[in-house]
Amino acid sequence: MLLATILLLCPLPQIEGTAKVVENPTAAITISSESADSATASSLSEPLPSAPAPKVKTDAEIEPGIEPAAAPAAGAPIRGLKQAITSPVETRTQRAMWYTLAITSSGAAVFDAWSTRRAISGGYGVEANPMLRPFSHSNAMYAATQVSPLVMDFIGRRMMTSHHEWMRNLWWVPQSAGTSMSLYAGVHNTRLVP
């Protein structure tokens, strides 16, 4: 595969027998006419054969009275082709809002981890999330709770630059939902502890 790519991208030297570029065409004709016999010299002056006749009839031959379609000008754009698809770009306001939501969701996750550790260490509750239960008795809880906000930030960023308009309009929903769930859990845990 790599060899095929290299062969396609790198120019190859000309092989013998292929046409070579001539610097002075008149000198090449005089040299060839001097060295060649008269039969080959006369073949240079003969006209080239004409192109073969087309096998497809033109519009004018099929229906008389219809003018054939004109070919577009050399610099004219080709009609009927779609423009190249470009990826939507986020605006400055969207970027600032995304960073604000990312910081808020991480802060809410820290609040949730702190309140959970406080409730568990006081004996007022247990961790309900089975994925976070192994981390609930150590400081690793703070790092483990940051996974969800990072995933929601990634999803929100991908939605912000999606090709689907409805996704671009709702890019803030994953981050907001994650933040609200963390805040709800944190407030619930603080109410458990007297």
Oligomer: single chain
Helix and strand content put the structural class at: mainly alpha
**Count the strands?**
0
> Using only CA atoms, what is the Rg?
38 Å
Largest sheet: none
User: Helical content, roughly?
Assistant: 40-55%
Tally of contiguous helical segments: 9
Stretches where pLDDT is under 50 for at least 5 consecutive residues are 30-34
Question: What does this protein look like?
Answer:
By secondary structure, this protein is mainly alpha-helical. The protein has a domain at about 95-190. It has nine helices and no strands. The chain has helices at about 1-10, 25-35, 40-45, 60, 90-120, 140-145, 145-160, 165-170, 175-190. The radius of gyration is 38 Å and the shape is elongated. The model is unreliable at about 30-35 (pLDDT under 50).
